[in-house]
Design brief:
Helix content: 40-55%
Strand order of the largest sheet: 1-4-5
CATH topology of one domain: Nucleotide Exchange Factor Grpe, Chain A, domain 2
Strand content: 5-15%
CATH class of one domain: Mainly Beta
Number of helices: 5
Number of strands: 6
Radius of gyration: 60 Å
Shape: elongated
Order of helices and strands: HHHHHEEEEEE
Structural class: alpha+beta
Distance between the termini: 175 Å
Amino acid sequence: MRILSKTSKKDADEELNKEPELTADGLEAKKPGIKVNAGNNGDTPRGAEKNAAQKQKKAKGTAEEEGDAPDEAETSGAAGEADDTGIDPAAVLIGELAVEHDRYLRLAAEYDNYRKRSVKERETRYGDARADTITRLLPVYDNLERALKMECADEAFYKGVEMTMTQLTEILESMDVSQIPTVGEPFDPNRHNAVMAIENPELGEKIIAEEYQKGFMLGDRVIRHSTVVVAN
């Protein structure tokens, strides 16, 4: 057995009773004969900060794993990449849009053709109605014309017939109705209806010599052919 001297024992007791000193890392210096757990530094200020940082990092990683991080499918879809089937959704949408646009253009063209056809049909029906109405009034014009060619002893009566004829003529002119020229004009089968041919050396070939019934036009449309006699 080793026997310590009084001086050595006194130095040992003072070393044990000395208060612990702190190192630069906040750890207690080792006391003689006492082991210090240097790996567990959670009780020191710096150790508490490290533990808090680790807990915060761990919590952030858990949140990302639970769905806070952006979905890979959404990221790939936003970038216009193909899905698992190899089909690009953006390309599919562009194709569908092109089909719908072509269908819209066809529908617009069909509607425009229908509108133009409807306008033309309305104008044609209106023109036919006007022509039919005027044609029904032309016999009245013929009778008034015959009456004016007859001799009449009653001057007031003749004047009334003449005024009626003048008024009817003005109404027809306001409706764009005009008489077809006949006597002295070349015969035109599109406007004239020849009922007789005569020899007249004073007139040229196929020149209208006489008019039996007046013909009328509504604008550029013949509503009644002139009944004429053609020379030569």
